[in-house]
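Holo prediction. Input below; ligand is adenosine-5'-triphosphate.
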Amino acid sequence: MKSFVQILKLLKNYKPQIAGNVFFNILSTIFSIFSLTAVAPFLTILFAPDDIALPATVPEFSLDSTDVLGFMNYQFASFIHTYGKEQALIYFCIFIVIIFFLKNITSYFTLYFIAPVRVGVVRDLRESMHRKLLFLHLGYYSDERKGDLISRATSDVNEVENSIISSLEMVFRDPILIIAYLSTMIFMNWKLTIFVLVLLPLSGIFISKIGKSLKGASNQGQSKLGEVLSVFEESLSGMRIIQAFNAQDNTQKRFDTTNNAYHRLMVKLYRKQYLASPLTEILSSITLAVLIYYGGLLVFEASKEGFTGAFFVTFIVIFSQIIAPAKSFSQAYFKIQKGIASVERINKVLHAEELIREPKNPIHLKEFKDDLRFENIRFKYGNNEVISGINLNIKKGEKIALVGPSGGGKSTIANLVPRFYDVSAGRIAIDGVDIKEIPLKELRDLFGVVTQESILFNDTIANNIRLSRPEATDAQVYEAAKIANAYDFISAFELGFETNVGDSGNKLSGGQKQRISIARAVLKNPPFLILDEATSALDTESERLVQDAINKLMENRTSLVIAHRLSTIQHADKIVVLEGGKISEMGRHEELLQRGGTYKKLFDLQSFQ
Ligand SMILES: Nc1ncnc2c1ncn2[C@@H]1O[C@H](COP(=O)(O)OP(=O)(O)OP(=O)(O)O)[C@@H](O)[C@H]1O
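Structure of the complex:
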């Protein structure tokens, strides 16, 4: 039932299309029953050895099967009488073509209406997943495997399309067909129909049992596929190291282990799924056999109730029409169970808890006026406290440098300010306002973040620079590039600012990528800069250009710099030494050197390099 509700939720935007589909399904079923029930009585009368004497009076039409039969027989007989046998046969053939034409046109319209549902649901799912991922807190991404997320967005969504959506046609069509055929059968002979109805629930139990186990297996299968894609993705991104360390065999083994486990699971899964069709057919043929036996006896007994051979054949023809929709409905049921496992995996992402929440009563800051304060802040990754009580005041216009041994908590501090993570205790305040009270977008508008690694997207240089201001004019982009010392090298490219940077910007050098990400921050023009200095050394010329660009970017701004090379921060207003999540020293360069503590040690160490 829960699964059913989940599917209905996917469909809620497509009510008119579904209504259209159901409407044409009903029409198509009516045409199909009409075409089937008319053939046998008409041909029986047409080929009757004697000429038919028309009854003197027109039989009453009532909703009783014998009366209906009598009425139809009368109509057919009078038709044959009026037009003669040959002419009647021609008309009947034309009638058959028309009715089949109508049946197929209406069937086409059922599919016509289902097409936008089918494609739309998949588009909606991808869209809402992508949107959700864009706003989820960064901590989510350290806990989840990237490949698994990609697998949910691609293969699980495809699975929803292939299993659930492709089964929709059947879900809306088959029950209508089955109910209509069954009603016709009940109408024709209810006793005989009871035989069919007794056997149907038995089949239902069988089918639902297999369906359930299929869902479990499918869930495992999809999460294994997530692992497969994760390893694949890791191999791609670590290709240089894999080849440099000759680790191909090892990496392949790692991949094969997961890939083969996935393979084994899927073989089991498909074997179960393939059971649907033969199982239903066997069950239906048993029902058919019982039906023929019992119905045959009825025909032998007497044709007293109008239960003639031709009538019985029509009955069987209608029953045989149930087999196909029953089979495809049970197949659809199996497939849907498999697809529900994917819906659940997708829902896990869609319903993932947003740990970074928007404020209930937001306070809007027009601008950054005075200071940013850390008030006794603490932070834990899980149970591991990595920031243990930090107090710090950054006044507007100051340049603060964070230094210290690796793992001291510098990057963590930088992540707390734009609320990539929230503090576990204490508070961070801008001009006295807790940052949790400021709408996220407004808060993040205050900061420019330049990371160690330059993150570029597979797009043109101009669009990469425009990331936060898509509306910026070409002139503004050029100006930002000039300040970031990037204008000259960009203009030297054949396509200039329209040059595509390749995946993650891999068509550019390290220094070029850094200058483009600096240009991006220049264009955003934030009052507060968070800068994680690159550790990877560039050559001297490139280093000078990047450093010069950074200095220009920092002019007239407040900045928090995570410094790895102490030479670049000697003029900082305050140098904060972080060790084990606490501030161990704080002051200006000269003061800290005189003190002879950790900073001096770090400085001496780097001077020898
Ligand atoms: N996503 C994470 N999950 C769990 N622990 C983490 C995570 N990121 C960092 N840590 C831990 O938090 C501590 C502080 O890490 P952080 O990256 O802030 O240090 P850092 O001073 O910036 O180090 P470095 O100079 O090497 O970049 C480390 O002990 C690290 O192991």
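The radius of gyration is 37 Å. That is the main takeaway for now.
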